[in-house]
Amino acid sequence: MNARLTTVRAGALTTVQDAGRRGHAHLGVPRSGALDAPAMRLANRLLGNDPDAAVLETTLTGCAVRPDRAVTVVVGGAPCPVTVDGRPAPWGAPVRVPAGAVLDVGAVSAGVRSYVAFAGGIAAEPVLGSRSTDLLSGLGPEPLRDGHVLALGTPAGRTAPPVAVPWPGPPAELVLPVRPGPRADWFTPAALRTFTSATYRVSPHSNRIGLRTEGPALERASTAELPSEGMVLGAVQVPPDGRPVVFLHDHPTTGGYPVIAVVAEPALAAAAQAAVGTPVRFTPG
Amino acid sequence: MTRNPLLTARPAGRHALLVELPDAERTAAFHAELLRRRAAGTVPPVEEVVPGARTVLLDGVRDPEALARRLAGWEVPAGAADDGTVVDIAVRYDGPDLADVAALWGVAPHEVASLHSCRTYRVAFCGFAPGFGYLTGLPPELHVPRRATPRTRVPAGAVALAGPYSAVYPRSTPGGWQLIGTMPDPGLLWDPARDRAALLAPGTRVRFVAAEGAA
Fold first, then answer.
1. Quick one: closest CA in A to B22, which residue?
2. What is the pTM (predicted TM-score) of this model?
3. Per-residue tens of pLDDT for chain A, all 285 residues
4. Cα separation, A269 vs A232, whole angstroms
5. ipTM of the complex
6. Contact across the interface for B55 and A235, Cβ inside 8 Å
7. Cβ-contact A279, A199 below 8 angstroms
8. Which of A20, A59, A108, A131 has the highest local Cβ count within 10 Å?
9. Is the dihedral of CA A119, A124, A126, A127 positive or negative?
């Protein structure tokens, strides 16, 4: 019998995430998946899990769960205090949680999203090949609620090699390398210069769908309406208010506002950890 | 290799191309040709092929520049833009905007059903929600604007019009389209447990069948 987790404290927003759904964008299905994918994979590797095993992704305030059997966990991503039945436990390294004990993943001390991996992974029912919660279209498990029970998978039984863990720190400044296009020509030359020279800040309206920014508005050269077109992960869409929005994993698959540039995917992990107010610069690359 | 003047390949990051075409018909033809070549294994691997109104996004491509050069040499046959699937959707023409649409069309409300159900549509692209297909096939004189004020709740199964498109809402969401009818069993539109999760996928042809008891 595998362990089950009871949610003691769901936190502000805690979802199940894995590598997400691929190959269904043409049906309107977002990719979804862990926003800080390297953090998810590292946490899983430290347990001997498949790197893409399903984990919990918390948001700012952490969460607390009680397993009904002893289980080994790793809490990584955004740094935070970790306790087991109130006693301090290490962050970023395997922790044994006895049966019936409460694992508390505290509020982040920096960054935004912590990742809680369990030996064996979370065994929620896959939808289109993924266990990820998709907040845009409502696929996958619902966000955690207090009292919610999740099943765990069978631990692989592999012993993970000890790793000197290079957890990247949350960004003090978020530098996002961008390539122009596909609709850079819909903007004025001045807007294109502003885009890659101004400093923006992470807006409080950011979520798993997009990292919204505050800063100088980007003026369009064309006021035409853009017919709906496919959107890639990392697309920097410019809505009518002129403030760039970086599309994250729950982004809509088609959209009607022009995309001025696309952020290189490896930089999106840092975007997932950029707290509200963090300076953002878009640099050619 | 001849440059295909009908096709503009726009860069979309390190792993994607957005191919733009002059109109919806040629977009459909290019999409169909791309799927044929993909099935035949004669294009490099593409993870996602996402059609839009006048574009096709090719995402998850190893070398977008090389692919763009290859696309420029393609000859795309026109008029073969369907995937062979035809889906019939039963509709009760009882939507709250039926009278408004009839007025925009210059017909009596009871004539909307026959004008809407007498033609074959094609799913041009999906988006907005899983299983939501944008269907083309209405002639320009039957295109209608969105409602000035969107509804906070459009029921699942609502058959709706906006611009050149018809659609059926797979689930209840806010929406600004004109509602002309109801699909009695909207659960058919989207079922991720089914082999074909979306009833309406890009390229699918659709006929609306007026159900008994139509308004």
1. A227
2. 0.95
3. 789 999 999 999 999 999 999 999 999 999 999 999 999 999 999 999 999 999 999 999 999 999 999 999 999 999 999 999 999 999 999 999 999 999 999 999 999 999 999 999 999 999 999 999 999 999 999 999 999 999 999 998 766 666 666 788 889 999 999 999 999 999 999 999 999 999 999 999 999 999 999 999 999 998 899 999 999 999 999 999 999 999 999 999 999 999 999 999 999 999 999 999 999 999 999
4. 16
5. 0.94
6. no
7. yes
8. A131
9. negative
